[in-house]
């Protein structure tokens, strides 16, 4: 593949040499020097010395990703094949665990190729593409997957639509198309997934450790409210953990049949659980009016959301949202507060928690914190890659 030489500023050169995987947009004065998306880049410092090899791919973090810091390394099919094999080898314990059949095989820059991820669902592999640049190299990836043992089928998700919406398409790429829903296991729990049904699959794999903790440590005997519940995976974990009851609340109409499905594949009587299709903010007002209280509340909102009534940004509004939760959390209750916003770290997240409790006049203890599970490998010099922040909080008064 043809490579274009690009000189980046001294600050970017130093950061990339230190391990930063993203090529900053402000590393050059004129973005046109990067060429078309997918162009391989020989990155040089202001003196012309080699820094790294990368590719141009527009995304919210920057202008592309670093692929190698070895000047003699060739970016070709063998490069992609080697990276994917190495990533799969790191996940051997997952491949060998019959109780967990859904996990991440390749986590972007954490495994050496930013802009793409590969997830495993009961032998069916799904590639997610986060820029047009890396998507232009897809044949290297798909040819490499043909060499991998145990790949029953390959699917893809294109997540780089400039309008911010999922690009509707047939996500099937190759292999034997499974029947959906496909039932996968996670720590012995069952979840129904569909790899060919829009942007989502039915479960967020990065919350695996948190669901296990809810089931094994926190749910027994507690009344549980699951907000922004999506397909109710946290509710399933709580019910299997012995919760006295669960309430799942989400604005999307599809959340009702999808949550029923998740309960059903686990042998849980969904009619004994409450599934509410409602704006979560409206539900908080309803719960206060009805004087409802919950012993365990799961709060995992999207980083950014807009409805007809309001706009929510985790960076600006999380503390206020947590205050709403505390108003319906019982004394001694537990809040599982989570965010996947990459724009701030755990330290900042703790300040949101502290502000909410201070305003509510309640004391608290953080019992445990969770970050990304081990299959979501992240590079050391990229804090934004380690985006997940979860705090299990006990509200003492």
From TrEMBL:
Pfam families: Methyltrans_SAM, PUA_3. InterPro entries: PUA-like_sf, PUA_sf, RlmI-like_PUA, SAM-dep_methyl-trfase, SAM-dependent_MTases_sf. The keyword S-adenosyl-L-methionine applies. SUPFAM superfamilies: PUA domain-like, S-adenosyl-L-methionine-dependent methyltransferases. GO terms for molecular function: methyltransferase activity; RNA binding. Residues 117-345 form the S-adenosylmethionine-dependent methyltransferase domain. The keyword Phosphoprotein does not apply. GO terms for biological process: methylation. Keywords: Methyltransferase, S-adenosyl-L-methionine, Transferase. Signal peptide: none annotated. Transmembrane segments: none annotated. Residues 6-69 form the RlmI-like PUA domain. It comes from the Bacteria. PANTHER family: RIBOSOMAL RNA LARGE SUBUNIT METHYLTRANSFERASE YWBD-RELATED (PTHR43042:SF3), SAM-DEPENDENT METHYLTRANSFERASE (PTHR43042). This is 23S rRNA (Cytosine1962-C5)-methyltransferase. The lineage of its organism: Bacteria, Bacillati, Bacillota, Bacilli, Bacillales.
């Amino acid at each position: 593949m043809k490579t274009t030489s690009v000189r980046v500023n001294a600050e970017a050169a130093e950061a990339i040499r230190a391990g930063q995987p993203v090529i900053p947009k402000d590393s050059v004065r004129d973005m046109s020097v990067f060429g078309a998306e997918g162009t391989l880049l020989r990155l040089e410092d202001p003196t012309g010395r080699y820094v790294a090899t990368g590719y141009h791919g527009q995304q919210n973090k920057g202008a592309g990703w670093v692929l190698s810091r070895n000047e003699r390394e060739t970016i070709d099919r063998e490069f992609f094949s080697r990276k994917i094999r190495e990533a799969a080898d790191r996940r051997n314990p997952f491949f060998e665990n019959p109780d967990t059949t859904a996990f991440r095989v390749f986590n972007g820059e954490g495994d050496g190729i930013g802009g793409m991820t590969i997830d495993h669902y009961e032998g069916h592999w799904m590639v997610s593409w986060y820029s047009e640049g890396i998507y232009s190299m897809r044949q290297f990836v798909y040819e490499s997957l043909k060499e991998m043992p145990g790949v029953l089928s390959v699917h893809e998700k294109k997540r780089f639509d400039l309008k911010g919406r999922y690009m509707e398409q047939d996500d099937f790429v190759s292999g034997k198309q499974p029947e959906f829903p496909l039932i996968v296991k996670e720590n012995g729990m069952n979840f129904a997934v569909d790899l060919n049904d829009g942007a989502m699959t039915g479960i967020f794999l990065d919350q695996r450790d948190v669901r296990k903790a809810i089931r094994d440590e926190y749910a027994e005997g507690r009344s549980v409210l699951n907000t922004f519940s999506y397909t109710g995976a946290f509710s399933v974990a709580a019910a299997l953990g012995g919760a006295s009851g669960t309430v799942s609340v989400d604005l999307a109409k599809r959340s009702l049949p999808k949550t029923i499905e998740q309960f059903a594949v686990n042998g849980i009587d969904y009619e004994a659980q409450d599934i509410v299709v409602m704006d979560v903010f409206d539900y908080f007002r309803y719960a206060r009016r009805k004087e409802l209280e919950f012993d365990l509340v799961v709060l995992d909102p999207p980083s950014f959301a807009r409805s007809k009534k309001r706009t929510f940004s985790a960076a600006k509004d999380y503390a206020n949202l947590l205050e709403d939760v505390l108003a319906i959390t019982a004394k001694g209750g537990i809040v599982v507060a989570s965010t996947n916003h990459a724009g701030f770290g755990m330290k900042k997240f703790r300040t949101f928690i502290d502000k909410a409790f201070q305003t509510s006049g309640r004391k608290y203890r953080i019992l445990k914190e969770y970050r990304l599970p081990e299959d979501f490998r992240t590079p050391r010099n990229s804090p934004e890659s380690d985006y997940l922040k979860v705090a299990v909080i006990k509200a003492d008064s």
